[in-house]
Amino acid sequence: MKSNESVWRRAQKVLPGGVNSPVRAFRAVGGDPLIVERGHGTRIQDSEGNEYLDFVGSWGPLILGHAHAEVVQAIQEAAAGGTTFGAPCEAEVELAEHVVSAYSGIEQIRCVSSGTEAVMSAIRLARGATGRDGIVKFAGCYHGHSDALLVEAGSGLATFGVPSSAGIPKATTAPTRVLELDDSNALRALLEREGDKIAAVIIEPMPANNGLLLQRQEFLQELRTATEAVGALLIFDEVISGFRIARGGASERYGVVPDIVTFGKVIGGGLPVGAFGAPARLMAHLAPEGPVYQAGTLSGNPLAMASGLKTLQILDRENAWEKLESLGCYLDERLGKGLSSLEEPAQLVREGSVFWMALQGGPTPRRASALVPTASARYTRLFHGLLKRRINIAPSCFEVGFLSLAHSRSDIDLLADAVLEVLSE
Ligand code: PMP
Predict the structure, then answer these.
(1) Distance between CA 136 and CA 132 in Å, rounded?
(2) CA distance linking residue 189 with residue 282, whole number of Å
(3) Which fold would CATH assign to domain 4-67+319-424?
(4) DSSP string spanning 90-114?
(5) I need a surface site. Which of 139, 246, 390, 422 has the fewest CB within 10 A?
(6) pLDDT of residue 161
(7) Which atom of ligand 1 sits closest to the CA of residue 114?
(8) Ligand 1 touching residue 142 (CB < 6 A)
């Protein structure tokens, strides 16, 4: 039988760090990553045949669980008819119609192959449509790894964009401004000072890449009003929240209609898909209608469209968001209450089927700067304690967990009991 160790040894020879995406390497928690061979429902299996209860869900796409039979069938049927055409196909029209029906502010979408690509293209569209270069983002919000947005947050009211990766020219991030989340004063001051140079303000309306920093509805509303006042566009990055926390995502949940929405994860049902959408007058700036160039060999790929569309249809049919909320409430009851009764500070933060175990006390953090650095060592203990008990959570204290329609209350019992046991040890 293959061993995890032998595959991992081979991986490190031919893949940098052994992985195709850095967080998979377990650097934040130490140890060797699981080599995952199969997934079904809520369980994944490593290459030695060990089974784990999974709350990572491939970082968000698997809202129906692993290898949902109808999604697999839709992909198989699509594949049998040809895997890519580089020409328009009906599946991409159907997916677009579905997204348009769910978001009141969206009349058209364009499909791409990842969340990164969706956001990168949305930024280009915003710049092309406004004729401005400036971008405002928020500390702790991740928008994929395109150059202009890979910018480290500084403290204070606003920092000038400093690239947080090697290989990004300073000039590329110079027009990017970084603000703290939930800070209306800083937002107002920045837009007063240089609002006429800002093409777009981009935010994860449900920031889920630096813990889960849930925002006040009023703050999101202020973003809407403030951007409108200076002629800047508002971009909601709903790569995680889109079709996950409501049919109409965070836009519906918080009742704020942005100018552009970016998607990924759930709308691909586990295949590589991203998309961005906006009113038709804005989308008309894109090629071939307008001067903003954007393209892709595999964009609107028939397999990815079939997988995404089937997933979205099942969500509707199953009344998914109500079921997920009810599962989430059960998580509050079992895990949330348990965490707050521990001796050492801990709390559960949750929005719908997205949850985060914040290993800190005090008020629920709304800004990256409110995160307690000591959480990391405790999380490492928790992570390995759970892995020993065959439960898989994200290998970093800054990453959230995901519930799927496949999870049951007994899965949540298993998680809650294990977490409380490890943290009480
Ligand atoms: N935006 C957000 C909010 C994300 O969470 C992510 C990925 N986690 C991205 C963009 C980038 O998506 P991808 O990894 O598909 O490029």
Answers:
(1) 12
(2) 27
(3) Aspartate Aminotransferase, domain 1 (3.90.1150)
(4) HHHHHHHHHHHHH-TT-SEEEEESS
(5) 390
(6) 60
(7) 15
(8) yes
Catalytic residues: 142, 237, 265
Q: Is 237 in the pocket of ligand 1 (CB under 6 A)?
A: yes
Q: What distance in angstroms lies between residue 239's CA and the mean position of ligand 1's atoms?
A: 6
Ligand 1 centre to CA of 106 (Å) is 20
CA-wise closest residue to 372 among 380, 362, 382: 362
Q: How far is the CA of 140 from the centre of ligand 1 (A)?
A: 13
Q: At what angle do helices 184-194 and 217-230 cross, to 10 degrees?
A: 10
Give pLDDT, residue 160.
Answer: 54
Does residue 205 line the site of ligand 1, with CB under 6 A?
no
Distance CA 365, CA 307 (A): 36
Cα–Cα distance for residue pair 112/369, rounded to 1 Å: 33
Global pTM reads 0.97
Q: What is the pLDDT of residue 155?
A: 30
For ligand 1, atom 9, which residue shows the shortest CA distance?
144
Nearest C-alpha neighbor of 122 from the set 283, 298, 284, 301? 283
Question: How distant, in Å, are the alpha carbons of 96, 130, 214, 290 from that of 281?
Answer: 16, 12, 31, 10
What would be the CATH architecture of the domain defined by 69-317? Answer: 3-Layer(aba) Sandwich (3.40)
Mutate to test the pocket of ligand 1, among 146, 240, 251 (most ligand atoms within 8 A of CB): 240
User: What are the residue boundaries of the structural domains of the chain, listed by start?
Assistant: 4-67+319-424, 69-317
Let me know if 19 is exposed, middle or buried by CB neighbors in 10 A (0-12, 13-18, 19+): middle
* Mean pLDDT for back-to-back runs of 10 residues, the chain (425 residues): 91 97 92 96 96 98 98 98 97 98 97 98 98 96 91 44 79 93 96 97 96 97 98 98 98 98 98 98 98 97 98 98 98 98 96 97 94 89 98 95 98 98 95
Distances (CA, A) of 420 to 7, 331, 346, 385: 33, 13, 10, 10
| Residue 144 Cβ < 6 Å to ligand 1 | yes
What is the full DSSP assignment across 242-282? TTTTSTTHHHHHHT---SEEEE-GGGGTTSS-EEEEE-HHH
Q: Is 302 in the pocket of ligand 1 (CB under 6 A)?
A: no
Instruction: Give pLDDT, residue 337.
Output: 98
Q: Which residue has the tokens 């290998």?
A: 395
State if residue 268 touches ligand 1 by the CB under 6 angstroms criterion: no
